Amino acid sequence: MTESDAAAEQVADLVAASELAGVPDEFQRLWTPHRMVYIQAGAAPMHADCPFCAAPHKSDEDGLIVHRGTTCYALLNLFPYNSGHLLVCPYRHIATYDQATPAEVAEIGAITQHAMEVLRRVSRCDGFNIGMNQGRVAGAGVDEHLHQHIVPRWDTDANFFPIIAKTKALPQLLGEIRRAVADAWG
Which positions fall inside the HIT domain (predicted)? Predict the structure, then answer.
């Protein structure tokens, strides 16, 4: 094969590949630009720095923060189960609920209540999953910093995606949700 034949074959392969971009295959694809922070940080970004200690030092937009309290704050989950999935964290780096002060426990509760009111207004959700996974064995993704999940739920949110395709559909980008929740916090 000559050099010009090889070059012509490469061009043909590139043209064929570009035509395949819209051809359906067996893979499901979801647009998740918020995950780039983890890809760019390397293999184990969660172990390098605590994301819940770092977030309050960022702008609200960059830290996905919707409310800053005295001892605790609320932010969007970077890996949401549903749109509007919030986390309530103490500023202090503590691992479990029993290490929280009475003031932190009270503010976690107060922020959780207000977050539920805000999410009902903003997203018209029908219910919530609220909970804490404490320790890696209990399912905590960040086990060294206490955080409570507030996951809005809708009567119609349990479609076939999670069951059949092991896929969650998130209809809004994190920045849009953060802005709407923060604006409604009041």
Answer: 51-160
Domain limits at 121?
A: 32-185
Is the Cβ–Cβ distance between 90 and 100 less than 8 Å?
yes
Residue 155 belongs to a domain: yes
Question: Domain total for the chain?
Answer: 1
Q: Report the CATH number that the domain containing residue 168 is assigned in CATH.
A: 3.30.428.10
Question: Hey, which residues are catalytic here?
Answer: 147
At position 90, the amino acid (one-letter code) is P
- pLDDT tens for the chain, 186 residues long, are 676 666 566 655 555 545 555 556 666 666 666 666 655 655 444 445 899 999 999 999 999 999 999 999 999 999 888 889 999 999 999 999 999 999 999 999 999 999 999 999 999 999 999 999 988 888 888 889 999 999 999 987 765 555 556 666 777 888 899 999 999 998
For residues 74 and 89, what is the distance between their CA atoms, to the nearest angstrom?
A: 6
Whether 4 is covered by a domain: the verdict is no
Helical spans, DSSP H, in the chain:
3-19, 36-41, 45-48, 51-54, 60-63, 102-123, 160, 174-185
Handedness of CA 179, 142, 94, 129 (dihedral sign): positive
